[in-house]
């Protein structure tokens, strides 16, 4: 279970030196430090369950979500997440994997996010439509529908069958909220 330093100090308050006890727990690997001030009690925890706790507010998106939904053929080993108003990208290399965070416009941040539960963990992940829009937002603008089709199916290698399954109305709402060239062209293709 993910715990903050303060939570652990509260739990270990019966010890004379709770910080020393925590240090021993880390050495014994009964508790793993994820980042400064954040610990995980289960070494085998999947990294994506921790992404929102490491830096936030954030939700899993971009390549990680596209891979998870089977929209791209590549396996993704970096936990990519979206944030807003942070002004710069962040990267954390931990025992649980590599975590990257980058901004999306605050106007669209809350669109297309779903809560998932796995055991005792709850995490946020973009819907397939939002993950695709988030990814396209990070890329240089294209100039035509033909270039967008090439970007989607050749460069990003989006699975055409999975693309056809996307919810068009949801995709159009997200595209309109972004107000970017890539989203305008994507909306024309979706229509």
Question: How does the SSE layout of this entry go?
Answer:
Elements: E1 2-4, H1 5-11, H2 18-27, E2 32-35, E3 38-40, H3 51-54, E4 59-60, H4 62-68, E5 78-83, E6 90-94, E7 97-103, E8 113-118, E9 121-126, H5 128-137, H6 145-155, H7 160-165, H8 168-178, H9 181-190
Parallel strand pairs: 5-7
Antiparallel strand pairs: 1-3, 2-3, 4-5, 6-7, 8-9
Helix pairs in contact: 4-5, 5-8, 8-9
Short structural description:
The protein has about 190 residues and is α+β, with helices and mostly antiparallel strands. The chain has 9 helices and 9 strands.
Helix/strand/pairing category: alpha+beta
Average predicted local confidence, pLDDT: 94
How many individual helices?
A: 9
Strand content: 15-25%
Q: Which stretches are low in confidence, meaning pLDDT under 50 for 5 or more residues running? A: none
Q: What would the principal axes of the Cα set say about the shape?
A: elongated
């Amino acid at each position: 279970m993910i715990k903050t330093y303060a939570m652990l100090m509260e739990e270990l308050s019966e010890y004379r030196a709770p910080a020393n006890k925590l240090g021993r727990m880390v050495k014994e690997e009964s508790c793993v430090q994820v980042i400064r001030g954040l610990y995980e009690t289960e070494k085998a925890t999947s990294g994506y369950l921790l992404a929102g706790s490491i830096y936030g507010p954030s939700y899993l998106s971009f390549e990680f979500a596209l891979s998870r939904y089977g929209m791209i053929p590549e396996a993704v080993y970096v936990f990519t997440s979206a944030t807003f108003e942070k002004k710069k990208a962040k990267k954390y290399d931990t025992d649980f994997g590599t975590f990257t965070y980058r901004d999306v416009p605050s106007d669209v941040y809350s669109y297309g996010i779903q809560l998932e539960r796995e055991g005792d963990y709850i995490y946020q992940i973009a819907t397939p439509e939002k993950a695709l829009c988030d990814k396209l937002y990070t890329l240089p603008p294209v100039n035509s529908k033909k270039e967008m089709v090439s970007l989607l199916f050749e460069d990003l290698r989006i699975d055409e069958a999975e693309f056809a399954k996307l919810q068009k109305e949801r995709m159009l709402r997200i595209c309109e909220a972004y107000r970017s060239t890539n989203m305008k062209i994507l909306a024309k293709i979706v229509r």
